[in-house]
Amino acid sequence: MGRKEDNIKRATEVMHNRERIRNLAIAAHIDHGKTTLSDNLIAGAGMMSEELAGKSRVLDFDDQESARGITINAASASMVHGVNGEDYLINLIDTPGHVDFGGDVTRAMRAVDGCIILTCAVEGAMPQTETVVRQALKEKVRPVLFINKVDRLINELQVTPEDMMARFQKQIIKVNDLIRTFAPEQHKSDWQVDVAKGTVAFGSAYHNWGITVPFMQKTGVNFPEIFEYCNNEQQKELAKKAPVHEVLLDMAVEKLPSPTVAQEYRIPNIWQGDLDSEVGKTMVNCDADGPLSLMITKIWMDPHAGEVAVGRVYSGTIKQGETVWASGAGKAERVQQVSMMVGGDRIQVPGVSAGNIAALTGVRSAAAGVTITREKDETPFEAIRHYSEPVVTVAIEPKSMKDLPKFIGALRSLAKSDASLSVDTNHETGEALLSGMGELHLEITIYRLEEEQGIKVNQSNPIVVYRESIGADNKGRPFEGKSPNRHNRFYVEVEQLPENVITALREGDLGDGPVRNKDAKEVGNKFGELGMDKDLMRKIYAINATTVLVNDTKGIQNLHETRELIIEAFNDVCKKGPIADEPLTGVMVRLVDAKLHEDAIHRGPAQTIPAVRNAIKGALLRADSVLFEPIQNIRIDAPSEWAGGITRQLITRRGVIEDMPVENDVTCVIGKMPVAESFGFSNDIRAATQGRAVWNTENAGYDQVPPELFHKIVGDIRQRKGLKEEIPGEAQYTD
Q1: Assigned domain for 172 exists
Q2: Domain-embedded: residue 729
Q3: In this predicted structure, what is the pLDDT of residue 427?
Q4: Whether 618 and 637 share a structural domain
Q5: Domain CATH for 399
Q6: Angle value at C-alpha 145, between 144 and 149, nearest 5 degrees
């Protein structure tokens, strides 16, 4: 029996004691040392040679991860760690640090209860650090902090102990500010990271050592000794006295919650079913003997087994050979295999019980975000909402039409495995619009199509996905939409949603999709808590991303019979707005009146949908349509002599410089830049600084397109889409 198999055998013995399970993720900014740390934790558990730790990159098993030296996919490993003579099962997920793969981080946070936030001692908390902290706290995942690369402070920068402590304190304060801002109200205080309480660790993943105050007290190792070991190039000796795996896994066991503790406050946050039902109670209690509730957080493609669904078991036990339902599926399916994961290796087990992470094969209907149960109609978990939306699109098609069926199937599979990817396919022509988080995200996706699926494709240049909205409203000036038969008329007003409401919608706090009558009061109350008229919002029909539809009519006969058709028309406009066929954002659509034909045959889909669609589009135009473009935060570090070249690059790309702090002859340029202007930036910034610049980006939402560029950008979009050059006026939607 190999090391990994032996470890999993021990894991299956521990998994049933839920007090001794810890589900945790490692999250950080790119290149801060997550995967090196993961290697050392796996080696410390005895599953690989310590000499290979940091080189094998066990959890970066994808060939593109190896080639590029970055983590692209969230990958998990189950390992056993002993504390005070007792075995604990650690289900560890290593997450990507690059902004383009932030969706994987969001999904990973659904599967875990605790998180090691890793920062670099030299660079500090960076933009993506803030993002991953926010992602963890939104899922009610408790954080601890590991400040990595301390050896660089001592050996390269040669800081004094006093300076080092000041740097540490600055990072701790920043992380705690984030926790104070984004943590659930009841945990804003007790989740603060604190050196004295042992929730902050320091060390070097590369040199395999770490330290916390409790470990200092246990071993007698102190910071003056650490300075001495580093200065004397004795970090191997230090690693023997304070191995990083022991320090951090001890911290995880002692400071992060077990599933039995975490699910009590996490389940109400991620599941909207009846908590007093049998299913609700078993999930809150993390009961392995109750009904099965499992949420898929990752689809992984195994070259031999095909699709592997990985997810968290919240209640019950998933067993090999049993029949299960995937939420939204049309039929039950048989689980062929149940496994536990160690990177790219699946080690088969008879079953995986509540509180653990499992890998399944055979459930073809599974996709990221899907709920797996034994009963067909169980309440699914809340959808996993990434804070950012796809912002870059390419058009692709197979070079050979004989590959078309395979091409469509491959795209379907990619969309299942990566929920951050949006795919819109024309099944007749084979052209597909592929939308992702950035250029790299799409580049990796196309690589997988060509190299892993063997489908060569033609692709367009990358284009930006804009958002349509309004700059005013048409209150008191409703727009009339007429049905083709002129027997039905709908009157619509639109207005801007407040920014705090848009943020809540984007983060999924208010739901998505049609709102059932029985839920409308509760949803309306949530809008009321954000400052909106709760009585009005209790009339809500539907939510589509960051746009809402409200029925503000009174006593209109037969309107309820057209409800689904009205919502369908609303969704059509949300997908394609009136000025450039781009998605709609930040708008409340109010149906204020309607005149309907008394005979149902004259108010069917062919009559109602065009009428409502025209009413909404006309109202948007009447309310002064505007265009929003995606924006990136950007940070560029380079020797000060190159600062001029950096600022010129940003300014020529419509960038805004917000700050330029200087430290040790290194200038840090902090600002914002439109995504539309970012293509080719990597090559240009390297040329402008002779390769001396290091930069990071983070999605920063949307800003309104400057008025002077509005017509040009809209014209370019309409030309690209084959639309008439002129932006339509209200008259186009009158008839």
Answers
A1: yes
A2: no
A3: 57
A4: no
A5: 3.30.70.870
A6: 155
* 295: phi then psi, degrees, rounded to nearest 5: -115, 130
**646 within 8 A of 688, measured Cβ to Cβ:** yes
What is the tens place of the pLDDT at every residue in 19-70? 999 999 988 877 777 778 877 777 766 554 455 444 444 444 445 445 444 4
Determine what percent of the chain is predicted with pLDDT higher than 90.
39
Give residue-wise pLDDT tens across range 205-220.
888 888 999 988 888 8
**Cα 342 to chain centroid, rounded:** 23
Per-residue pLDDT, averaged over 277-295, amounts to: 94
Token pair in block for residue 691: 């390769």
Of the residues 597, 623, 649, the one at which a domain ends? 623
Q: What is the DSSP letter of 731?
A: G
Which residues lie closer than 8 Å to 677 by C-beta, 6 or more apart?
Answer: 653, 654, 655
Give CA–CA dist 239/228, Å, rounded. Answer: 13
Please name every residue paired with 75 in a beta bridge, in sequence order, or none if there are none: 94
Report DSSP letters for 311-348, one per residue: EEEEESEEETT-EEEETT-SS-EE--EEEEEETTEEEE
pTM value is 0.74
Burial class (CB in 10 A: 0-12, 13-18, 19+), 107: buried
pLDDT of residue 3: 60
- Same domain flag for 126 and 164: yes
Please identify which residue in the block is written with the tokens 């090999």: 320
Which pLDDT tens digit goes with each residue over 475-507? 889 999 999 999 999 999 999 999 999 988 987
Domain region containing 452: 392-465
Please identify, among 427, 443, 465, the residue that sits at the C-terminal boundary of a domain.
465
b (16+ CB within 10 A) / e for 516-548: eeeebeebbebbeebebebebbbbbbbbbbbbb
Give me the DSSP letters along 630-669. Answer: EEEEEEEEEEGGGHHHHHHHHHHTT-EEEE--EETTEEEE
341: helix, strand or coil: strand
Comparing CA positions, the residue from 153, 7, 133, 146 lying closest to residue 82 is 7
- Give the pair of three-digit tokens for residue 471: 């700059």
- Comparing C-alpha atoms, which of 408, 409, 403, 406 is closest to residue 364? 409
Residue 673, classed as helix, strand or coil, is: strand
Is 182 found in the same domain as 45? yes
Which residue's structure tokens are 């950012």? 388
CATH number (domain holding residue 293): 2.40.30.10
Q: Look up the CATH number of the domain holding residue 695.
A: 3.30.70.240
CA–CA dist 595, 556 (Å, integer): 8
Query: Residue 593 is part of a domain; what is its CATH number?
Result: 3.30.230.10
Considering its fold, how many domains does the chain have in total?
Answer: 5
The SS3 of residue 562 is helix
Residues 217 and 295 in one domain: no
Residue in the structure block whose two tokens are 């990796």: 444
Q: Does 217 share its domain with 133?
A: yes
60's CB contacts (< 8 A; 6+ apart) are: 35, 66, 70, 71, 72, 75, 94
Asked if residue 195 is part of any domain, the answer here is yes
Backbone angles phi, psi at 680, to 5 degrees: 85, 0
The span from the CA of 277 to the CA of 377, in Å, is 14
Using CA atoms, how far residue 569 sits from 64, 613, 617, in Å, is 42, 5, 10
Is 261 domain-assigned? no
Q: Is residue 319 located within the same domain as residue 439?
A: no
Are 226 and 347 contained in the same domain? no
Q: What count of other Cβ atoms lies within 10 Å of the Cβ of residue 84?
A: 8
Task: State the CATH number of the domain containing residue 153.
Answer: 3.40.50.300
Q: How far is CA 528 from the centre of its chain?
A: 27
